[in-house]
What we know:
Elements: H1 19-35, E1 47-52, E2 55-60, E3 73-77, E4 90-95, E5 105-119, E6 127-132, E7 156-159, E8 166-171, H2 173-180, E9 189-192, E10 204-208, E11 219-229, E12 233-238, E13 251-255, E14 268-273, E15 283-297, E16 305-310, E17 334-337, E18 344-349, H3 351-359, E19 367-370, E20 382-386, E21 396-402, H4 417-428, H5 450-461
Antiparallel strand pairs: 1-11, 2-4, 3-10, 4-9, 5-8, 5-10, 5-11, 6-7, 6-9, 11-21, 12-14, 13-20, 14-19, 15-18, 15-20, 15-21, 16-17, 16-19
Bound molecules: calcium ion (4 copies).
Amino acid sequence: MARLSENSRKQVAFPKPAGSQTRRTLLWLVLLLTCTVLLPLSSAVGQIFTLCSTDDAYIIHGSPDYNTGTEPALIIRNDYGIGGTSGWGTDALIKFDLSQYANQTITSAKLKLRYYAWYDNDPAGRVLKLFRNISDWDEFTVIWNNQPGHASLPTSSCAVPAATETWMEWDVTTDVQAMLLGSISNYGWHLLDDNYWGQPDIPSIRFRSKEFDTTYCPKLEIVVVKQTLYPTDDAYIIHGSPDYNTGTEPALIIRNDYGIGGTSGWGTDVLIKFDLSQYANQTITSAKLKLRYYEWHDNDPAGRVLKLFSNTADWDELTVTWNNQPGHASLPTSSCAVPAATETWMEWDVTTDVQAMLLGSISNYGWHLLDDNYWGQPDIPSIRFRSKEYGTYSPRLDIDVVSYIPGDASGDGVVDIGDVVYLINYLFKSGPAPYPLIAGDANCDGVVDVGDVIYLINYLFKGGPVPSCK
Ligand SMILES: [Ca+2]
Ligand SMILES: [Ca+2]
Ligand SMILES: [Ca+2]
Ligand SMILES: [Ca+2]
């Protein structure tokens, strides 16, 4: 993930001294400055999504045609020995719907089950292995006899804790990332106890299933850091055919209008829009609009700078035309020069726009892309991009999402003296910046400066208000 710009340090400013309160605080500062230590830079936390299972059931060796899909529990039991044949064994199957997160980048995925009871013998310390399934199943039809196959090596393991009414968790990061990228199919997981028991009263380990309730349902907790969105609307508009709509065409075409503000009527511009509603109020560190440049006509456009503007009114791809096109901002959000080679991605930085859209300070009507470089002769370069209707190479918006706790400059999840030290290191000793930078803004005034150090000290040691920007 990209680091924040060093320019952000220009925001450092000193408040005016004002009375003994400030003098005491400055004394604190001097004290801290003399004893600051180098702290490890913790990694960023992404946006956390928690899903309940869509299918869960256990399968019973001794009742191989019995389905448990609607029961409120998932039961795990060793089969009286490794690969045993006693028939007491029960395994659990669990599956989640990941379709909404296709192509996202995650940093963590954990499968969590609520362990609530045991029978016959205490299973504490028994290691339960989780395997990725390699064929499909559903909870209403799965039985021991038709169970899906699973990978030969476990994805991860977790030992049963001493106490019941606790969550057990399995790391499934590698599996889930591969599922999201489509390199493996998502058929969920198979959980079992293959620890030899070999006597009566085999420990029976009980988890809540999704039928119990949504608080204790099997959960998949994923931390998403990079998200790729695809447009809901894209189209180009044609000066010379001002009532013509192109919303369903597989291409987006950009062409100068025969000079700046020209009147030849050759001009075509592109409009593009994404649904950002799922990410409302998130903090992002980067947003990039990417279009796949696949060919040109008439003249090579290499080096022509295409300007992207945020729209100021709404539109949709099936009705937009030159004549009813939305207005856009007067200054471009960003620009990108057409590269020499076709079959490449062009990219516009829309971080500021997207952050403002997520926070609601501007409305999201997407963007307007155009070529306003004077041409002034025949055969105006026509620059062609894939639209979402083409299928592959769809326009995309790649965003990096970060969640944070106001005041947690060090990013370790707690606001404490370590954050004061971290901020002082950053502000005065060229230490690393908070990540995201805004996490250092304890007083929520939009700047990271010594005021935040003072605010944190007030909060931590003088009963001052909690850092909170909501
Ligand atoms: Ca179930
Ligand atoms: Ca379209
Ligand atoms: Ca901290
Ligand atoms: Ca601040």
